[in-house]
Amino acid sequence: MSFSAPKRIVLKFGTGILTKVHAPEPDPVQLRKLMEAVALLKADGHSVVVVSSGAVASGLKPIELNERPTDMTTLQALAAVGQPHLMHAYENLLRDHGLHVAQLLVTHEDLENYDRARRVKTTLERLLEFPQIVPVINENDSVAIEELRFGDNDKLSSRVARLWGADLLMLLTSAPGLLKDINRPEDGPISHVDDVDLVIHHAQEEKTKLGTGGMISKLRAVQDAVNGGVDCIIASGRHAEQIPAVVKGGGICTRFAARK
Ligand SMILES: Nc1ncnc2c1ncn2[C@@H]1O[C@H](COP(=O)(O)OP(=O)(O)O)[C@@H](O)[C@H]1O
Ligand SMILES: N[C@@H](CCC(=O)OP(=O)(O)O)C(=O)O
């Protein structure tokens, strides 16, 4: 297994790392650090695609709600309001690095359909011919509800990684990796997992307040990605400054080797 020089990297940002710890709104410091990490990876010669959650959370403040509602129509409305806010923030931050954002909104149905998936792939590849462009993908929440219900941006990121033929999928979340024992975070994460099927039981249903997927959904996404030949890492997005080091093989995280 080699994590030393992956060229095609999918970074998945969960809601929990895009929002403030004590307020249901985007965290500008976090967004800046994450965009810095993207810029550093690109400067190192990697090709980077971002799968970003956070649309619903970004819509809460403009709609004047203090917490994530449960009804699907309001969640879809929130995503419609929050998505442009999020893209605007990314565009502003990337500009400091001479980069620009490209938005792709897709559903699982799109990726299950051969022709549409092929169009997504060719659009992505054309975008990546321009080194200054950072494609940012999210679920098209206003037309699909399974995503909002199950937090399937984890699954979406593994599907994108497979479709694109990524070398590495990094799921960046609020935890430092797959914790050995969620009740003893001081023990840290498992550093390497040889067989993801054997560690699903390590994940609890617990998740952050605004996140929807939780660790189980991440491990399922890892299963899908490693079966498709993509190496995976689960790491803390709250320590975005370590992302380049993690890509080089260091840092604190959980690594899963692709099935060859
Ligand atoms: N074994 C485990 N190791 C780490 N986190 C776990 C584990 N089991 C459950 N979790 C929970 O999963 C959460 C991450 O999922 P989630 O809140 O959905 O994040 P995101 O918004 O990044 O998708 C962690 O904050 C933690 O509460
Ligand atoms: N598409 C939704 C996110 C759904 C989702 O998967 O959220 P998360 O579990 O935080 O990755 C949004 O942008 O709010």
Kindly list the characteristics that best describe this protein:
ATP-binding, Glu_5kinase, 41% helix, transferase, 10 helices, binds adenosine-5'-diphosphate, 17% strand, Carbamate kinase, alpha/beta, eight-stranded mixed sheet, binds the ligand N[C@@H](CCC(=O)OP(=O)(O)O)C(=O)O, 260 residues
Summarize the structure.
With 260 residues, the protein is of the alpha/beta class. The chain has 10 helices and 8 strands.
The residue-averaged pLDDT reads 92
Shape: globular
CATH architecture assignment name: 3-Layer(aba) Sandwich
Strand content: 15-25%
Bound molecules: adenosine-5'-diphosphate, ligand VHF
Uncertain spans: none
Q: Helical region count?
A: 10
What is the CA-based Rg, rounded?
Answer: 17 Å
CATH superfamily: Acetylglutamate kinase-like
